[in-house]
Structure formats: C-alpha cells, structure tokens
C-alpha cells in the first residue's frame, strides 16, 4: 500500500511536519498554490529569553496578489545573516547546539536562492538527512492539476499510484473524503496531539516551534520526541 502526503513547503518547519514526511512513501510539495501572507511558508517561531520570536524571510508581495508559492521571490538578501545571528544567540547554550552549528551556519551563510520554495526545500532536505528521513520528495508542478480542491489532490494521488492519502487535520474543512473513496483513495488523518515534552530552554514549554529547537536541545535523541520513529 503506497501512502503519500501533499503539503505546501514551510520554512524550518516544526517537528510534526517532519513526522508527516517520514510516515509516507512520497511527499509532494504543493507549491503551485497561491502564496498566503502571515502563514508558515516564509516564517517560523523559535524560543528566546523574552518568549517566542518569529523568524520571517522577506518576500516580494506588493501588487502580486495571486502569485504562487513557487513564484514568490526573496526581497532582501541580508535575511540569512539576521536569522543565523538570532538562532545562534538564542541557542548557543542549548546542549547540542555545537553538534549542528557548522551545518546550519554553512546553510544560512551560503544560502543564495532567489525563490522561497528553493530555500524551504534546501532547509527541509538538510533536516531530513539529519533525521535519516529518506522519503521521496516531489513537486506538485510535476503533475497535471485539475480544477477543484479535492479533485486536484485526488489527481496527484492517482498519478502517484497512491492507495492512501495522509493529510493534516486542517484539510477536513474542505476535503471531500467521500469523493476520494469513490476514486479508490483511502484517507488517513495525521494526529498531532500527544507529543512528549523535552528539555527546552526558556520555559514554559512550547510544542509549536521550529524543529531546530528540538535538534539543538535533544540532539540524536530528537527522534524519541517525535511520532514517526517510535
């Protein structure tokens, strides 16, 4: 039984995003969908001494109301230095920060990609390697997309010869599960509840932060605090 997931690329996503990738045979970046502001595409949260802080990649949006995620370009080049300075400042005292410092410093300071999707892909694939996730990654632009929210997703499933479509719970608001069943696609819904807490700087504990927080605080033990490795 072949299981796939289809989801927009996010910037340094939280642990649940990587669990979703690790639980499927193929993961499709749904990046020829419309870019949405104040979402997870170009930003994520980290822990700081003063509470949660957003790291946001500056992107071109003025006058581009209907641009797709994979058409969204970076508007400033110095964001990489700012983000790395913020990360290194706030996590330098984390137990395992030194184990990953060189990897992420190199990733940030040599990041010259022009498009948001390319940047997200670069960070996600690097973190996949750290976690030993070998799921095949593809782009929705590889497929012939048809009209209709559910129909598009079913079409991708069929082109992938997938039997099971694993989705986050937010899709329940619009996805027609009955239509999927008629097309021979079984739906499974990701459960993001019940994650274990780990040693985290700057209490109180917060689950909804970038996975960098988990890596820097738990190192190789990070998998023990995720769902797809247990």
Automatic annotation (TrEMBL):
Protein name: WbqC family protein
InterPro entries: WbqC (IPR014985)
Pfam families according to UniProt: WbqC
